[in-house]
Amino acid sequence: ASSDGGFGGHVISLAGGTMRVEGVELYRMGQAGVIARYPLHWHMAGSVPGQYVRNNSIWRTNQRCITIHGTDDAEASGNVCYDHQGHGYFLEDGSESGNLIVGNLGLVSRVPAQAVRLLASDANPATFWLTHPANTVHDNHAAGSTGFGFWYALPVAPTGLSTGQPDAPRLTPLGSFRGNVAHSNRRAGLQVDDGPRADGTTEVTSYTPRLGALSGGEPVPAIFEDFTGWKHRGRAVWLRGTAHRLRGAVLADNMIGATFASSESWLEDALVIGETANQTAIPDPTFPIRGYEFYDGTVGARRVTFVNFMPTAQRPASALGYNRNNSFAISTANFGEAIALVNANAVWLEDPHADRDGDKAAVFRDIDGSVTGEPGRTVVANAPLLVGPSCTWRAEWNSWICPERYVQLQVRSDAGEAVAPLTLARGDGSAATALVGIPNAPSRAFMSVVPGRGYRVTWNGAQPLRPRLVLSRVAEGDRVRVDFPYPATPVRVVRDYQNGSPLPVASSLADAEAAGGDRWWRDPSTGLVTVILHVRSGRTSTTVELQPQ
Length: 549
Known about the structure:
single chain, mainly beta, Immunoglobulin-like, 11-stranded parallel beta sheet
């Protein structure tokens, strides 16, 4: 084989063939930049129960190590994949299921030269590139990658030669992911996001497993069990999707332990260590290390012990925090519960950035008092609109502790009108926050607000004629008054518009207040419209929309 030219041998098994390879050393195998030329490779072989590659040593490869392509029910166990170009253990199309990937070691995943990359994602190589969730992935180790350790890169449907097969990887329940270890990777140890498109590039991916993936069945949790991740320059874990559980994890010496850009997803029964006695210098000594980051949501941490997250003169540190520089909506129901702190600062929230509305809305609930010392308290960012007179400042957290519960107020227009930039102020004028809206979507803005309070919207751009207000993350009976200017033109107000009818106009502001959301008011002297968002029995949100006549 020629190491200079990247031209090595390869072993391939096609449909009808049999692959059983055990105890073999493969050196400088595979062919750089040539598709289907990998050291060990099942190629469109269909279902192959009883076939395996076991206890082999594959090293200094020109491309990948073990490829399972269009093949189900194969076994790859006990192998070593060392110093390889591009993704190492590689499921190719997103059609591959029922495979057993157990007890393998992967080391030093390198970025191929641009001219010989088969996929754009090879620029961030994964030691284990997993394009279908319905496989058994147990007790593997991934270390020293210039990209990721384990990357669930799920396409909408199978790609490549498997295009057209009836499958939906992003909706398929997780087979089993248990006992895997990742360390010393440049990016995440476990990444569930950024699935491939048909053209080989990747896109933001929400993994939302369901029973009966092709028939739209009920959601089912994806449980990532007993994962160990340490010494990552980025995060140990990044998950995006719905109903994920990172259970029994041990995370240590990472810049960030875990971030969930998810919904209904929890870190649970875990141990997260900020700095061990084996800690080495991190790339940025001023970076605020964190154990668990809230993002999107609803997400939370439950029955988690955090150890050794102490600030220094150079940088903050905390067990809990929010994803920094956040422009997107967050759930006011994000939570911590049964949190144990050992030599750990509980929270640190960065001061909100003016162009990041998610920073300004950052709140999470302390369910049982294990974070703040008092059950039901809310930890909130240092943003004036969030903070009331009953809140208490915690300097070491750069945050406030407040007794109130918060809900989410959305101001939007489904008619495509811009609602942002806008200013949201308390009804009494005591505090205000400028909102810039969601990036590339000025028709949507959001903020965390307190039920029972009143707020006033001021449009800082053009006046939207069809604004919609949505109150979510609520409890029955929650109500929020919102005032905003509207032109002196005929308009109707519709509540829960999808099956609602126009609300009657109140005879006065007092009448609108007394009606509890059943009437609305326009002040003839100021032009201000007043609506009461009131959550009815059995509902999880409430909406009103203005519709010009």
